[in-house]
Design brief:
Helix content: 10-25%
Distance between the termini: 28 Å
Number of strands: 7
Number of helices: 7
Shape: globular
Strand order of the largest sheet: 3-4-2-1-5-6-7
Radius of gyration: 17 Å
Strand content: 5-15%
Structural class: alpha/beta
Length: about 240
């Protein structure tokens, strides 16, 4: 199975676009390919150098505990400014308009665990919406749902009207069965949002993923996406 990041270097039109763009990246420590190479290393290898790197909850480095606000910093290797998209106010959860004005493309690569109240999927959604609203193109590098995308395994109630939040920005079941890109493309913010490389949002899809499968069958390591999510088994019991 290949995730979006694995397939990135196989797509010459996209890599050329990223090389020529003022690039922003939304990623974290689990944004690695099957050989455990980080997205910033792979982008450097194709000559694409981000100007801004956005980090979700737990920080770009993935070491902060939950509900701990993370400040801005700078990536030592690339020199890119690292901007936190997690803080004490709603405005801290989305890229600032001034930051988006510096960019042409926002590349998103976050690992989700398939439970509604895990925040990475909502950070991806909010950041992509903000990029689209600012006239920037969003590119989603898709990753599979580690606890299965089988519709028969979707579980849990949908929030009542008025009870959405950062631990459930859209009304979906607790165990939603969607991939990161599927969630964002289903809720782009405006049903008229044009999709695809020539539209506002595009995605690099998965290859070789079976919806009924879960992480142990993927022939690749489970990389912990946050400090308290160390194993597949943790992700599996998390919705409960």
């Amino acid at each position: 199975m290949q995730v979006g990041l694995d397939r990135l270097i196989e797509l010459p039109d996209l890599t050329a676009r990223l090389r020529g763009a003022r690039l922003g990246v939304l990623a974290h420590a689990a944004s690695v390919d099957r050989r455990l190479r980080h997205i910033l290393e792979l982008l450097d290898g194709i000559g694409a150098r981000p100007q801004i790197v956005f980090g979700p909850e737990h920080g770009f480095g993935g070491g902060a505990q939950d509900m701990v606000a993370v400040g801005d910093e700078r990536d030592e290797r690339s020199g890119a400014r690292i901007v936190s998209l997690y803080g004490d106010e709603l405005a801290a959860l989305v890229p600032a308009h001034a930051d988006l004005e510096e960019l042409d493309v926002l590349l998103v690569d976050l690992t989700d665990v398939g439970a509604r109240y895990y925040t990475f999927v909502w950070t991806a959604l909010l950041a992509t919406r903000a990029a689209v609203a600012a006239g920037k193109h969003g590119v989603l590098l898709d990753r599979p749902n580690p606890i299965s995308g089988d519709p028969a395994r979707v579980e849990g109630t949908i929030q009542q009207e008025g009870y959405t939040s950062f631990v459930g920005w859209e009304r979906v079941p607790i165990r939603h069965g969607l991939t990161l890109a599927e969630m964002v493309l289903l809720h782009p913010g405006d049903e008229d949002t044009p999709l695809g490389p020539d539209g506002a949002v595009s995605a690099v899809p998965l290859s070789g993923w079976e919806r009924s499968s879960s992480a142990p069958s993927w022939d690749r390591p489970f990389v912990l996406p946050s400090p308290n999510m160390p194993t597949f088994e943790t992700a599996l019991v998390y919705p409960g």
